Amino acid sequence: MSALFQPYSLRDVTIPNRVWMPPMCQYSAAPEGPLTGAPADWHFAHYAARATGGTGLIIVEATAVSPEGRISPHDLGIWNDTQVEAFRRITRFLVEQGTVPAIQLAHAGRKASTDRPWKGGAPVGPQAHGWQPVGPSAIPFAEGHPVPTELTAAQITEVVGEFADAARRALAAGFEIAEIHGAHGYLIGNFLSPHSNHRTDEYGGSYENRTRFALEVVDAVRAVWPDDKPLFFRVSATDWLEEGGWTPDETVRFARELHGHGVDLLDVSTGGNASGVRIPVGPGYQVPFAARVKAETPMPVAAVGLITDAEQAEKILANGEADAVLLGRELLRNPSWARQAAREAGAEVRVPDQYHRSV
């Protein structure tokens, strides 16, 4: 029996299979005007295609909790009710297709205010709808990036409140699962790592202090997110630095604490916080980090990173390395990956009535 196509339940939400789509920014929202940050036709078509393709869970791309929290001026946001209404069109359709809709709540921190990747991804200023980035410390991400404004303790509290407000809006927009983005060198990850956090107050220095902001965000979101709905957290398990960075040992410790604070699943990625590092990219290269968390903590995990074929995905689940797999680029290439894999495995996956001739 295919492990990929077994349902998976967390709290009162049942996901129909273990083929999940991770957050992947589309950089396709309006940068200004009344629809700033709101999903548009591109986003609907993009997510709808993966839902009709049989994907069990779709996590909508990094969605900013404030205008300054966007990675680029073209990112999605969920800081106002206009955005909520636009998201409802997407969540309704995903639910109709049997897909569970999730959303990643994010703040880009010191990596904010950059151009779209196909435009080079360089920092942009006010002349291109940009703004001044913020971070735990006044340390730029890389050469050519602006020095971020160091957040005060009062401003940190404001950001925590923005995450909670965004979670309330995500619920109103019809999402069943919320994920907090603590990976890839964005704001929460900036605080976690000593590479980017040089603070000397209660939010910097020791492990306990560096994780304080993340846990405050988790507690604030969990307080407004219903008890019957799951909460995920995405982490970079390592900065890929030999010293002075966030480590896999800290990830394991942090996973235990997150579990105690009401997080239901850890979405395990790596990197993104230190520029110029060498990452040994290859098939399933991040899976061992997820497997370690699963083996050493009570936290369920999802694995991501160059998982491309069904046999590979089945082995990850069968070996107990993860509870689900997240297919990124492969789902961009093939929106119907899940239906195709189910057919090859002799498993069942929901097929839209309009597509039954393809079964």
Textual characterization of the structure:
The chain has about 350 residues and is an alpha/beta fold. About 35% of the residues lie in helices and about 15% in strands. The chain is built from eleven helices and twelve strands. It has helices spanning about 40-50, 80-95, 155-170, 185-190, 205-210, 210-225, 250-260, 285-295, 310-320, 330-335, 335-345, and strands at about 10, 15, 20, 55-65, 100-105, 135, 150, 175-180, 230-235, 265-270, 300-305, 325. It has an eight-stranded parallel β-barrel with strand order 3-4-5-8-9-10-11-12, surrounded by seven helices. Strand 4 (about 55-65), helix 2 and strand 5 form a beta-alpha-beta unit. The longest helix has 20 residues, at about 155-170. The model has no long low-confidence stretch (mean pLDDT about 95).
Distance between the termini: 19 Å
Low-confidence stretches: none
Strand order of the largest sheet: 3-4-5-8-9-10-11-12
Largest sheet: 8 strands, parallel, barrel
For the structure shown, list the relevant keywords.
359 residues, alpha/beta, two-stranded antiparallel sheet, 11 helices, globular
What is shown here, in short?
The protein has eleven helices and twelve strands.
